[in-house]
Write a structure and sequence with these properties.
By secondary structure, the protein is mainly beta. It is built from 2 helices and 14 strands; from the N terminus they run ααββββββββββββββ. The termini are far apart.
Length: 213
């Protein structure tokens, strides 16, 4: 069989396959549901701003008050992803996440936290930008895992109790930034399960959430 004949046969077979697929294709079967972010997912337990406050106040051991104001918030809303039968619907078309950004009154502190479902739906991801410190880890089975590229830059540890400035807190995620990776003096961040950001340390000064506000 010469090359020309083989090429014609291949084209005919391909045309038949495509025609059958097109005939049997229903557009509704090709669409994908995007359910929106599920707030019952375990990663949300460690979200910095679960109550979605408009402002947060922190105090140091000199009784100075620092106010963080919400500047934006966003989450995935339920929707239908429409695709033609010849387009592939993937989980990345529906990136399920929730995020928020906060800034201090004096502009010295910027925080953005995102928790999301990973594209392959095998787990979740935690992302934090704190004064240009970029921190991220996968989350699965109540455990945070950093990548090989940043394993020496920062650490995640979930502790039953911690003491911060003589006050005891239960079920706390402690993020420690190693000295060579720190930006603007940020060294530690404390997040209480289901309560969010409770404290952080910058330039050896610890700021603790003021529960009076």
């Amino acid at each position: 069989m010469n090359t020309l004949v083989f090429s014609k046969i291949k084209n005919i077979i391909l045309f038949i396959i495509v025609s059958i697929c097109f005939y049997n294709c229903k557009e509704d079967d090709c669409n994908g549901d995007c359910n929106g972010f599920d707030f019952a997912t375990p990663i949300y337990d460690w979200y910095l701003f679960p109550s979605n406050p408009f402002e947060l106040k922190f105090v140091n051991n000199q009784s100075d008050i620092l106010t963080l104001n919400q500047i934006y918030t966003k989450k995935t809303e339920p929707r239908l992803i429409e695709r033609s039968c010849f387009s592939l619907f993937t989980s990345s078309d529906c990136n399920e996440f929730v995020l928020a950004g906060y800034e201090s009154d004096n502009g010295d502190i910027d925080i953005e936290n995102t928790v999301s479902e990973e594209d392959d739906s095998s787990g979740f991801y935690f992302s934090l930008i704190f004064n240009s410190n970029i921190i991220g880890a996968s989350f699965e089975n109540n455990q945070f895992t950093t990548t090989d590229d940043n394993i020496n830059d920062y650490s995640f540890n979930i502790l039953e109790t911690v003491i911060i400035n003589d006050k005891t807190w239960e079920e706390v995620l402690v993020i420690r930034i190693n000295e060579n990776y720190r930006v603007d003096g940020l060294s530690e961040i404390w997040i209480q399960k289901n309560k969010g950001l409770i404290a952080f340390k910058i330039n050896d000064i610890t700021w603790i959430k003021d529960i009076q506000f």
